Amino acid sequence: MRIYDIIKNKRDKRELTTAEIEYFIENYTNGKIPDYQASALLMAIYFNKMNKRETLDLTKAMINSGDTVDLSRIQGVKVDKHSTGGVGDTVTLVVGPMVAACGVPFVKMSGRGLGHTGGTLDKLESIRGFRVELDEEEFIRNSNEINICICSQTANIAPADKKLYALRDVTATVEDLSLIASSVMSKKLAIGSNAIILDVKIGSGAFMKDLDDAIQLAKAMVDIGDGYGRETIAVLSNMDEPLGKAVGNALEVKEAIETLKGQGPEDLFELSLLLGSKLLVLANKVENEEEGKKMLIDAVESGAAYEKFKELVKYQGGDLNQIEDLNLLPKAEHVIEVRSKKEGYVKSLNAEEVGKCALMLGAGRENMESIIDYSAGIVLKKKVDDEVNKGDVLAEIHCNDIDMAKKVEEHLHEIYKIGAKNQEVKKLIYGLVTKDGTELY
Ligand code: URA
Ligand code: CA
User: Fold this and answer.
1) 217 Cβ below 6 A of ligand 1
2) Above 90 in pLDDT, residue 340?
3) Ligand 1 midpoint to CA 109 (Å)
4) pLDDT tens-digit profile of 397-406?
5) Is 166 within the bounds of a domain?
6) Do 314 and 337 share a domain, yes or no?
7) Of 183, 193, 348, 375, which is the active-site residue?
8) Which of 10, 60, 82, 116 is catalytic?
9) What is the pTM of this model?
10) What is the CATH number of the domain that holds 115?
């Protein structure tokens, strides 16, 4: 077999065989196929597409390029949750403790933030002493003892994807459905959970800017999961504006804890309840979503969900004092209020732009070497559809660099579009994609 022929086949719109796909992934991962030939093949795939079978084969080959994580030593039905990325998306920190408090193991290998999106590990590391690097023994023990563990990858997961993703990033071949879906799912499926729930984001802060594209991506990922024998469902949710109010690491930890106590922003709680109730159904804990929501609300009202978060922090070495007294979490030197110069209603609040503001303040990474300022970020006091009067506080800027705060303040004035009330009421949840079809709400 020759890579030249594989490139030519795809260039000429032919379906690649399983053997051809395996040959490509194996030999690209081990360095025998150079980047220029891999780039040519990626571009041919970009233009001529892959079908369902090819996409599943590509995913399998990428899984097989590295290690897999065996979760069979963890008791119960393990359900994984994954978001395609967003701004202020604190859902994992809310859903995890909630479902764990209901007796379902929440075992998650998370990532770090890059660019305008945040990462769960960075958020957790804003708690003093919190360890995300656990070995397999500790990860399994914690999961069995307290039903929850959130850590970084313990193994070499899908190295082919790492290499290919870096190449796609610089060759304008990221935006292909099969390539995105196989990339995401290879990393999910390499970890042996029993079922997967995907939160596919739509809007200005997401990969997919419109609903049709998001549905197609969700379908492609659900098909892969199903083809691999893993029950997979996808929720389609709004990322036109940030989720919740807090954007920034320590600020989001605080927001998650408040939500677990029943005092968080409504949108964050609603999405967490939906995803959490689906998780409980997938784990056979309840018959339906309604029962699941009730169980989760009980866990919040009884304090069990908050106690579970504290257990998570304790088991992973974090400082419990900072959880019990949220004022002890990293705090920025300056808190600047951004006050509205106009009156009306918030028409839009571009999530990606808010994410970039948080990044400018030091809440995120420009590259993998950047050092994060855990205290930095933005708290949105007004969100889309809220009424605003002149002088009202739109947002708070939390920062240690006052010059940067001034720039961000100007930028936020531009990002907050204020005018007449929107005709259409915003939607938080657009629908659901399962192997049986798409249901739009
Ligand atoms: N996230 C991934 O992991 N892969 C992609 O291709 C796009 C987003
Ligand atoms: Ca948030």
Assistant:
1) no
2) yes
3) 16
4) 999 999 999 9
5) no
6) no
7) 183
8) 82
9) 0.94
10) 3.40.1030.10
